[in-house]
Amino acid sequence: MSLLGIEGLARPEIEAILHRAKDFQSSTAKLDTLRNRLLVNLFFENSTRTRTSFEIAAKRLGADTISITASASSTSKGESLVDTLNTLGAMRPHAIVMRHAASGAPHFLARYLPTPIINAGDGTHEHPTQALLDARTILDNRPSLEGLRVVIIGDIAHSRVARSNVHLLSKFGANVVLCGPAPLLPPQLASLAPHVSLTYDIREAIAGADVIMMLRVQLERQHETPFPPGDYFKFYGLRPDHLQLAKPDVIVMHPGPINRGREISSEVADSKRSVILNQVENGIAVRMAVLERVMGA
Amino acid sequence: MSTLLIKNGRVMDPANGLDAVSDVLLRDGKVAAVGAGLTAAGARVFDATGMVVTPGFVDMHVHFREPGFEHSETIESGGRAAAAGGFTSVACMPNTMPVNDSATVTTYIVERARKLSPVNVYPIGAITKGSAGEELAAIGSMKQAGIVAISDDGRPVMNARVMRRAMETAKAFGIPLINHCEDLHLSAGGDMHEGMESVRLGLRGIPGCSEDVMVARDILLAEVTGVKYHVAHISARYSVAMVNFAKQRGLPVTSEVTPHHFALADTDMAPYDSNYRMKPPLRACIDVEGVTEGLVNGAIDAIATDHAPHPGSEKMQEFERCPFGITGLEHAIGLALEKLVHPGLISLGRMVELFTVNPARILQIPKGKLTPGADADVTIFDLDRPWTFDVNQSLSKSRNTPFHGHAFRGGQVATIVGGEFVWRLDGML
Question: Can you give the pTM of this predicted structure?
Answer without folding.
Answer: 0.95
